Amino acid sequence: MAEESKSSLDALSALCKRRGFIYHSSEIYGGMPGFWDYGPLGSELKQNVKQAWWQFTVRGREDVAGLDATIIMHPKIWKASGHLDTFADPMTMCKDCKKLMRADQIGDIYADQKKKPQPKAAGSDFFCPYCGGELTEPKPFNLMFKTVVGPIDDPSNVAYLRPETAQAIFAQFTNVVSTSRFAVPFGIAQMGKSFRNEVTPRNYTFRSREFEQMELEFFIRPDEAVEILHGHVVTLADRPNLDGPVQDDWGWEVWHKYWVEQRKKFLNAVGLPTERFVEYWQKPDELAHYARACVDIEYDFPFGRQELEGIAARGDFDLTQHQKHSGVSQMVFDDPLKQAAKKMDEAARKAFVEKVQADWVARGRDAVAAEKFCLGLFEGKYVPHVIEPSAGVDRLMLALLCEAYEEQQLKDDKGKDDVRTVLHFHPKVAPVKAAVFPLIKKDEAQYRFARGLFEKLRKRFNVQWDVSGAIGRRYRRQDEAGTPWCITVDEQTTKDGTFTVRDRDSMEQKRMTTAEFLAMAEEALEF
Q1: What CA–CA distance (Å, rounded) separates 310 from 387?
Q2: What domains appear along the chain, each with residue ranges and CATH number?
Q3: What is the pTM of this model?
Q4: How does the average pLDDT of the chain come out, rounded?
């Protein structure tokens, strides 16, 4: 019986370097803090995570379209979104060692130090966690990377590397609506690189300066429009069935909870069990000023519980901001809504407007704007609201690596202690799905059969070929890579066509035909 243990982030990062998952960027020149490269196994894992997200979020649905927008966009986009004015972290610098750091992370940095410094100034409770020196007063530091577009380095040509992928979706919203067959409710999804000039990138790949996001903006009708269409709005108090088909009468809070559940299902599907993450519902004083609700799905990393992804109900803030700053209407025309509004008499319309005004005023909004909004609804026009599930590829990869990593204390055939390092990836995301070995590489029949099987399997998924070393050593190499199945071709194979399939997690072996193995593998890889 194996004794199982989870290891530290140091042990995991050492494995990732040794086996080609993750390297320091520009390592031969001393590296670049906050930048990471993915090696042969890491790049496969990354592609599998992205493909799984795309399949689950876009191709597996009828109501989501994809987008692939540029990294550099018009700088006015970041003015409209608020990033230019408010996307900043408090930065401080040590007057002694000159290290820069985020003021709100000093406590965490101090806690991480193996040798904890003492303050050089007596009575100081705000000191450098590296040397104990005096710190400067925190100042806001904008996290966007600046660049210059064109040959002239002039302020008029300044642009920015995007700090998130979401704003491109909002900026292209009207184009997607006019060129697709989608009507609200529907979503637009995008994956891609984002850049944030983090003051203190830390915790391995968790907080990096260059990273990749997977974001969905799911556009829904305002609750007021749903009220006109159906005479009611389904809320969470009505206990809607979130596992069944989506319903046209759902209000924003049901849509929000629906996407929380969808994101949890996705995490389960790629190998994170529900008990390993938690939902954190942000308190009212923690929400962004435009958000009606936000849930952070948090995972227990070796360095503590941290956000894995967030699902926010953002109202109509983003599209309204771009409408205001660009002068281009972001409204949609909803014919079923207009037809439903036509059936309302004057008294019903008046009562509806008064109800909406009362609700808006209670939430600190303007009564005149509420009336204008209602008049637009009666014409079938509104700016859609949005639910935004936003996830980081790199953070999810790190969580999957942490969840998969295990050191098993075993006994070998002679009773001696042995350690097996294994990555228990779900087959859907495992970098290598199967490895094929001829038991005896000099046996021509075994070699020929194994090579033919390898060529057949590699047309369906990523497979490795290995003829080097003893069979046990080959198994251990694949365990460290997280390969779910190892196939060994032996003497019996040349007689009846069956081969040995070793399961990574249980280490049990079973003889199978090619058809039986393919059926098992394809079932495990399906969404």
Answers
A1: 10
A2: 62-84+145-334+381-397 (3.30.930.10), 91-135 (no CATH), 432-525 (3.40.50.800)
A3: 0.89
A4: 93
